[in-house]
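Hi support team,

I've been running sequence recovery on a batch of backbones for a student project. Most finish fine, but this one hangs at about 90% for roughly twenty minutes before it completes. I'm not sure whether the input is malformed or the queue is just slow. I've pasted the structure tokens below so you can try to reproduce it. Let me know if you need the job ID as well.

Thanks,
M.K.
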């Protein structure tokens, strides 16, 4: 069977005899991941707002747009990793 690692701290999670595979090694990592999901969501909202202002503002600064888009992609990837079901 494939080894499963905690989505937050990356420690190996022992095999379970039944039920769906665990995503986190314990309650502390689960809570920390929940907090990170909230922070990433807030960060994404701020970045998307800034990107909208850059695109709709009187002076478009394309360097800022590219940097914001890159940061949005990175934050989105982290969020998807944290909320993705185990085993996919």
């Amino acid at each position: 069977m494939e080894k499963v690692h905690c989505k937050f701290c990356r420690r190996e999670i022992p095999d379970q005899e039944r039920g769906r595979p665990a995503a986190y090694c314990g309650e502390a990592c689960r809570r920390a991941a929940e907090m990170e999901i909230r922070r990433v969501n807030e960060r994404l909202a701020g970045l998307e707002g800034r990107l909208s202002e850059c695109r709709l503002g009187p002076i478009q600064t394309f360097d800022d747009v590219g940097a914001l888009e890159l940061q949005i992609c990175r934050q989105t990837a982290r969020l998807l990793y944290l909320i993705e079901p185990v085993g996919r």
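--
Follow-up from support: It reproduced on our side and the slowdown came from queue contention, not your input. The chain has a mean pLDDT of 87. No action needed from you.
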